[in-house]
Design goal:
CATH architecture of the largest domain: 3-Layer(bba) Sandwich
Structural class: alpha/beta
Number of domains: 3
Strand content: 25-35%
CATH topology of the largest domain: FAD/NAD(P)-binding domain
CATH class of the largest domain: Alpha Beta
CATH superfamily of the largest domain: FAD/NAD(P)-binding domain
Number of strands: 26
Shape: globular
Length: 409
């Protein structure tokens, strides 16, 4: 059989993996299969510049379609892989095509988590995951519309920010007591809530949605406490579900994502995985994580491509995430953990420590300081909370001290 890597999933991770295979010098066939009609694209713009009309949807695409043919990548769009036969090294598509592989990379990503009981056919109710989702929502998001966003995570808050910019009246409903409950300590999330409230976005936290009401088109959102919020549009953003079913059916281990090692290998021979769908061990954080971020979709896919090409490269990075909301660039490195000690340096930079070591940093328009914080997390050295809080002490100096401390026997 001709040497061939098949990539299932033509999103950001799949597209970057195909690109990186050629950059790594891989000379075999590369086949990229995706369910959507588009060539690979990056999703962050969908809740920001595409949604507010600053850029066309095509701007999210990583390369024009011609790029793939020019680089020897066979791109199949609008195609679904139904099954993997790992013993015979074959993938089977929904239309019955059987495609042999030497090595297989799963970049199957994730899908939106549906709101239980949400009406499927009610006009004005939206999810945001695809280019088409963003275009449909943008067409309806006109000045004066009353928008209710269900879910106070990053996607929901970015949609709220974009909608406000387009002149909508916005309410965010979050069933947990604080926004961003899954990713930020409450004390830091309160800063984000204050940002939204200051700009006139109404926040309802600590109360679930009971029903979405309407006759043909949405009219209101009823909360569990009996309150009813008038709505012309509803956007549901309550998280995503990793698309693990294809791998699981083939026999791969799964636990909140396809389980992979540091080289992106699944428990199936010559089957790898990368992106949102993976659960991987992060040696810097010393724990397993599943990450839904631009950085992970890109960089884990690049690492996987090098491993597929026979150039061993472990994936080990401090998680990094950014979000643009209401004119503020929010950047986060590391991950939140229960019981963290929160240390503020002024009003725009917060740190989370566990056992005296930095595990999380969140900055509001503080990109330069976040880069230093990333290096402090990498060093894994004990840090003084007092010195972290002292703006007279440069973070770069703390990085130098921590690096020296970590390298001293």
């Amino acid at each position: 059989m001709t040497e061939r890597v098949v990539i299932v999933g033509a999103g950001q991770a799949g597209g970057r993996a195909a690109e990186a295979l050629r950059a790594a010098g891989y000379t075999g066939e590369v086949v990229l299969i995706g369910e959507e009609a588009h060539e690979p694209y990056e999703r962050p713009r969908l809740s920001k510049s595409v949604l507010i009309g600053e850029e066309p949807a095509v701007a999210a695409c990583m390369h024009p379609r011609e790029w793939y043919a020019a680089h020897g990548v066979t791109l199949h769009t609008g195609a679904r892989v139904e099954a993997i036969a790992p013993k015979s090294r074959v993938v089977i598509t929904a239309d019955g095509e059987r495609l042999d592989y030497s090595k297989l990379l799963l970049c199957t990503g994730s899908r939106v988590r549906p709101l239980p009981g949400a009406p499927d056919a009610l006009a004005g109710v939206h999810y945001l995951r695809t280019l088409e989702d963003s275009e449909r929502l943008a067409a309806e998001l006109v000045p004066g519309k009353r928008l209710v966003v269900i879910g106070g995570g990053f996607i929901g808050l970015e949609v709220a920010s974009s909608a406000l910019k387009r002149g909508a009246q916005v309410t965010v409903v979050e069933r947990q007591a604080t926004l961003l409950d899954r990713v930020l300590p409450a004390e830091i999330a309160a800063q984000v809530a204050s940002l939204h409230a200051t700009h006139g976005i109404s926040l309802r936290t600590g109360v679930p949605v009971a029903r979405i009401l309407g006759n043909g088109a949405v009219k209101s959102v009823q909360l569990a406490d009996g309150a009813e919020i008038a709505a012309d549009l509803v956007v549901i953003g309550i998280g995503v579900i990793p698309n693990t079913e294809l791998a699981e059916t083939a026999g791969a281990a799964s636990a909140d994502g396809i389980v992979v090692d540091e080289y992106c290998r699944t428990t199936l021979e010559d089957v790898y995985a990368a992106g949102d769908v993976t659960n991987h061990h992060n040696p810097i954080l010393e724990r397993r994580v599943r990450l839904e971020s631009w950085q992970n979709a890109q960089n884990q896919a690049i690492a996987a491509a090098h491993n597929l090409a026979g150039k061993a490269r472990p994936y080990a990075e401090v998680p990094w995430f950014w979000s643009d909301q209401l004119g503020t660039n929010i950047q986060m490195v590391g991950v939140a953990e229960p019981g963290m000690q929160i240390v503020w340096r002024g009003e725009r930079l917060a740190f989370g420590l566990a056992n005296g070591r930095l595990r999380l940093a969140v900055g509001f328009n503080m990109g330069g300081e976040i880069r230093s914080a990333r290096r402090l997390i990498e060093a894994r050295a004990p840090l003084s909370p007092q010195r972290l809080a002292d703006s007279a002490v440069r973070l770069k100096d703390l990085v130098t001290e921590a690096t020296c401390s970590a390298s001293t026997p």
